[in-house]
Design brief:
Elements (H helix, E strand, L loop, with lengths): L18 H18 E7 L2 E7 L4 H15 L4 E6 L3 E7 L5 H7 L1
Antiparallel strand pairs: 1-2, 2-4, 3-4
Helix pairs in contact: 1-2
Length: 104
């Protein structure tokens, strides 16, 4: 039996998707990027992705962010939108920033 995790411990820096699901997820991200990505910026805690608020882009981004929250619990995925843009901020604890940047 493994010891209980304390509330102060960070989640493991890993994605829980299997190979087939990971390939499907990547395909969705690439399709969204091709359709609407404007800019990728590194932030102190991860990355910020700026998308055009085009047809379907916001809904797809929100769905992908929700899916990522389930499989990559070490990172935080926040979506915000304006009339012109949809923004995804992905952040992580200091020891996981490079993993977040590599994901995007």
């Amino acid at each position: 039996m493994s010891p209980a995790r304390s509330d102060t411990e960070l989640p493991v820096i890993a994605c829980t998707l299997g190979p087939a699901d990971l390939e499907d997820r990547r395909a969705r991200w690439y399709a969204l990027a091709e359709q609407a990505l404007i800019e990728r910026m590194e932030t102190e805690a991860g990355v910020r992705l700026l998308f055009r608020a085009s047809s379907g882009a916001e809904a797809e981004l929100r769905e992908l962010a929700e899916l990522e929250r389930d499989c990559c619990a070490f990172a935080r995925f926040e979506v915000s939108a304006s009339r012109e843009h949809v923004v995804l901020d992905v952040s992580a604890p200091p020891d996981a920033v490079s993993a977040v940047r590599a994901m995007f």
